[in-house]
Description:
The protein has 3 domains: 10-86, no CATH class; 90-210, Tetrahydropterin Synthase, Chain A (2-Layer Sandwich), CATH 3.30.479.30; 217-262. Helices cover 54% and strands 18% of the residues. The chain contains 7 helices and 8 strands; from the N terminus they run H-E-E-E-E-E-E-E-H-H-H-H-E-H-H. Strand 6 and strand 7 form a beta hairpin. The mean pLDDT is 79.
Amino acid sequence: MPSTMSDRLGSMQFERGTDAGRKLKRIVFGVMVLVAALFLLPSTFTYINPGNVGIVIHRAGGGVDSHPLDPGVHTRVPFATGIEEYPVFLRTVVLTRSNGEGSAQNDEINVNSVEGQPVSLDVSLSFELDPAQTPKLYSTFRTDIDQITHGFVKQTIRQALQEVFGTEPVADIIGPKKAEATNRARALISQRLQPYGFEVKQFTINELRAPQAVMEAINQKNVMQQQALTAQNELQKNTFQAQGDSIKAAGRAKAIMAEAEAQARANQLLSQSITPTLVQYELTKKWNGQMPQVTGGATPLLQLPTATKP
C-alpha cells in the first residue's frame, strides 16, 4: 500500500512537471513567433518615395515584374522579393574635369577633331526616365541609376561627341560651329538613349578645351579676321559716302542746268516779244506831249506819223 501511494505521488509530480514543460515550450514558441513577426513585419511592407518607381525583383527566379510600383506603401513577400527604386523626375548628370561638381573624379569627355587634335569637354545632360520602361532598364543593366548614368550614359555621350567632332576642324567646333556641333551631338544621344526609356531634355557643352598652341593660333586668326572685317566696313562706308557725294554733285549740276535752260528760254521769249511797234507804244505811254526844243540833229526817239496833204 505505501508503495502504491508513493507511485501515485510520483506520477502526479511527473505529470505536473510535464505540463509545466509544455507550458514553457508554448511560451517560448509564442515569444519566438512574436519576435519573428516583429522582425519580418517591416520587410513585409515597402515604401516607394515620391518621384520614384519601384522595380519588383523575384530573387528566387531572378525575374522582374513588367509593371513598376507607384509611389506609396506596398506589400511584398519577405526575403523572396527585392525592390529597386528608380527616379522618374528630372535629373542632370554633370561630366566635368572639376571635382567641385558632378562626381569627385575627373569625368571630362575627351575626343579628337578631324585633324587629330585632342579636345576635352565639360558637359551636362538633363533627362527623365519613362516609368513604363524602368523594368526593362533594370533588366538590361542590373544596377542602380547612378551606375548607369556614369557608365552607359557617359559612354553614349562620348561616342556621340567623337562622331560629331571627328568630322570638323578644331577651329570650327571651338568657334562658329560649336552650336551646330552641340545640336548634332544632342540628337545622337537622344536617339541612342530613347530605347532604354531616357527622355533627353537638355544637353549643353559647358566648357571646351584644346591645346594651348591651338588656342593661341585660333585667337590670332580671330583677331586678323576682326581687323579685316573692320577694314572692309570702313571701305564700304567710304564708298557709300563717295557715292552720296557724287549723287549730291550730280543733283546740283542738274539743278544749275535746269536753271540756265529756264533763263535762256525766258530770254528767248523776251527777245521775241520786243518789236519796234511795242517799243514805240511804250515810249508813247511815257511821253508828256512836248516836242524836244533842241535836237541837235538827233533823231527823236518818238517818231510821229506825218500828216498827209489834201
